[in-house]
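Please decode residue identities from the backbone states below.
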């Protein structure tokens, strides 16, 4: 009777050993998963600039096509014309020296906002691209006047 108990115990031990052996991951499986994760992370990091760059361009586009237009139009109503290139966007915050009809500030902030690349927006009146209006644009990510500029044209 004792032998049967020992045999059963040995059989049970072998069964448990085989079950436990199959329940974990092998080193190869773990390394494979880590390699796949590393590849996905590398791909994501490589494309972060493209993802964020798109949102920065959208922010600049909204500013030049929407946000700054209302203050410039209010200035025009008060003065009959837009600020000159020399007066620039600063005329929306502080009165130009030759103005008696200034009723600003026309912006809600005390500073002219910078573009997403921390550069000043460029302003021209009369505009080179908008002949009967003003040009306002961001120099874009390269920070020089070139083909990647984001403007109201």
């Amino acid at each position: 009777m004792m032998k049967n108990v020992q045999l059963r115990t040995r059989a049970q031990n072998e069964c448990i050993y085989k079950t436990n052996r199959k329940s974990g991951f092998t080193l190869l499986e773990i390394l494979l998963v880590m390699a796949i994760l590393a590849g996905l992370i590398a791909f994501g990091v490589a494309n972060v600039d493209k993802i964020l760059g798109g949102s920065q361009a959208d922010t600049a586009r909204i500013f030049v096509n929407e946000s700054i237009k209302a203050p410039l139009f209010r200035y025009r109503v008060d003065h009959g014309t837009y600020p000159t290139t020399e007066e620039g966007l600063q005329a929306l915050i502080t009165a130009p020296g030759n103005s008696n009809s200034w009723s600003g500030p026309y912006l809600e902030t005390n500073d002219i906002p910078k573009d997403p690349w921390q550069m000043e927006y460029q302003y021209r009146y009369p505009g080179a691209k908008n002949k009967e209006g003003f040009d306002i644009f961001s120099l874009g990510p390269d920070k020089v006047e070139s083909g990647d500029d984001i403007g109201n044209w």
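Observation: Helices lie at 2-23, 27-67, 69-79.
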